[in-house]
Amino acid sequence: MNGLYLHVAPTVDGWPYIENGRVMVPLRAIADVFEFEVDWKASEQKITLIKEEKTIVMYIGKSEILVDGEEVLLKDAVPAIKKGVTFLPVGQLAGMLGIKAEWDSKTRTVKFN
């Protein structure tokens, strides 16, 4: 992001993967890159990402999310838990935040501007 690299360590966060054409990245990586505070409610499988005036609320396995109280639908991929790690569709979230995400299939990297 902004010329800096974020490397996701498989032993800590799990490897990013592609689901239905969407890049799924560990929640912690997204929180770090976009500087979000994370609130996780395991009993509800609810994720809340907070940064300044921006709040995003989503649930594991559901395509409906709330961005500052407005409902938005994720397409083709939803928040998921694999091997105890929560994954989110990074490109769609970046778009909701007004951040351009570019996928480079040759290097298998996502670039944010």
TrEMBL record:
<protein>
    <submittedName>
        <fullName>Copper amine oxidase N-terminal domain-containing protein</fullName>
    </submittedName>
</protein>
<feature type="domain" description="Copper amine oxidase-like N-terminal">
    <location>
        <begin position="11"/>
        <end position="111"/>
    </location>
</feature>
<dbReference type="InterPro" id="IPR012854">
    <property type="entry name" value="Cu_amine_oxidase-like_N"/>
</dbReference>
<dbReference type="Pfam" id="PF07833">
    <property type="entry name" value="Cu_amine_oxidN1"/>
</dbReference>
<dbReference type="InterPro" id="IPR036582">
    <property type="entry name" value="Mao_N_sf"/>
</dbReference>
